[in-house]
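#onboarding

Welcome to the new folks! Below is a worked example of what a typical request in this channel looks like: someone posts a single protein sequence, and someone else replies with the predicted structure as tokens. Don't worry about understanding the tokens yet, we'll cover that in week two.

Example request:
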Amino acid sequence: MTLLLLVGLGWLSLRTVLLLSQVSRHSSEAQLGRAFEQELRDRGLIDAPADR
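Example response:
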């Protein structure tokens, strides 16, 4: 029973961490940073990343 409880708490913790990382990735500051990087790429001031 204890193992089941620990697995449940671990699963909830992992989901919380993933949700928080997703929220921070889509925050307004992150969007502004990505838009700024794209503007620099469009002007040829920085190279495009290799993975895109």
